[in-house]
Structure to design on (352 residues):
């Protein structure tokens, strides 16, 4: 099946079916997969194929099912699911943060899912009605270049980065990265509109460099182009995996008694409403929530496990699990609800 590599828009704008069909007739690159046959499953994944493939292969073996994996940006997949709602070609959606999954839930495009295994996961990470479920998580940290910033002098808060001492030394990924959007949504929820607008303006005035994605951020920090990068925790591990001698430091910011904490974002999965293989899809989601299935996701992607008792990748390199650091008192749904406002406010400010 052909993979899509279409640049994801800053936000999913729900196109009408007629408009999307017109685009298709005018030469869209979308190649719609055929509906899965019995004993098969079609998974639409916003996660990169090389990251999700180990879990897919383990599920095929455990469930004795053939899984067809279709990867693209989460927003592109969400639009596709709306286009296909009368006759879904996909069975399961795997996203990035909860934003697009929550939008699909509100549009009635996701089916219900229940499992006793969900009780093991904190309620803040789950959908209000469990239509989408959290399978792993990532943390929004500060990654520093230890040749440029001594550990004792590293910033301890996101909000220190507007200080003149950091002028021209900070990098962040654009709004095309969903965790950049979610990070600002968390700040908006905790600090309010006026504060957040002033904060982003202060970052830009202080020479904040907006790069295309988180990979560019971690490479720029590791290479000494910038002293500090605002990124996800696993990019620190990815950099060390590629070059163990990289001069990197890691900070979980805003950990003081009066501070907001470090935001956590869940990777989501959901059953598409009207899926041809709904029961197989439910079995697949159930498998991803078992220790065996979840292990492949956590270890393959260097994610934070939400299920108790699983190995934490990078624990020996300073990575912390849930309960080992302070996080905001927010649900994933609350963060998702504020993402459209974040994009209206800051979309033009945080572009490369």
């Amino acid at each position: 099946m052909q993979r899509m590599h279409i640049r994801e828009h800053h936000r999913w704008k729900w196109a009408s079916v007629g408009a999307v069909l017109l685009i298709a007739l005018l030469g869209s690159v979308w190649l719609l997969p055929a509906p899965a046959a019995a004993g098969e499953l079609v998974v639409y994944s916003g996660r990169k194929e090389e990251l999700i493939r180990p879990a897919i292969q383990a599920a095929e073996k455990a469930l004795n099912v053939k899984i067809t994996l279709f990867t693209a940006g989460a927003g592109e997949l969400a639009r596709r699911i709306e286009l296909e709602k009368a006759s879904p070609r996909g069975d399961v959606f795997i996203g990035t943060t909860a934003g697009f999954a929550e939008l699909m839930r509100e549009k009635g495009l996701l089916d219900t899912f229940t499992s006793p295994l969900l009780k093991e996961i904190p309620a803040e990470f789950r959908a209000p009605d469990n239509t989408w479920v959290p399978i792993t998580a990532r943390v929004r940290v500060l990654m520093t270049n230890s040749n440029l910033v001594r550990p004792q002098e590293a910033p301890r808060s996101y909000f220190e980065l507007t200080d003149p001492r950091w002028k021209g030394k900070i990098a962040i990924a654009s709004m095309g990265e969903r965790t950049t959007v979610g990070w600002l949504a968390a700040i908006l929820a905790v600090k309010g509109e006026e504060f957040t607008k002033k904060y982003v303006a202060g970052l830009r005035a202080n020479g904040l460099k907006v790069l295309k994605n988180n990979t560019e951020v971690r490479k720029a920090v590791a290479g000494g182009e910038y002293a500090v990068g605002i990124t996800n925790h696993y990019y620190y591990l990815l950099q060390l995996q590629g070059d163990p001698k990289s001069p990197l430091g890691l900070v979980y910011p805003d950990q003081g008694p009066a501070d907001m904490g470090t935001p956590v974002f869940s990777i989501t999965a959901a059953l598409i409403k009207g899926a041809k293989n709904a029961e197989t899809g439910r079995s697949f989601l159930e498998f991803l929530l078992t220790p065996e299935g979840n292990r492949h996701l956590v270890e393959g992607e260097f994610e934070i496990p939400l299920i108790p008792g699983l190995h934490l990748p990078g624990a020996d390199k300073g990575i912390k699990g849930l309960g080992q650091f302070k996080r905001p008192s927010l649900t994933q749904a609350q963060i998702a609800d504020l993402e459209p406002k974040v994009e209206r406010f800051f979309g033009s400010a945080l572009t490369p």
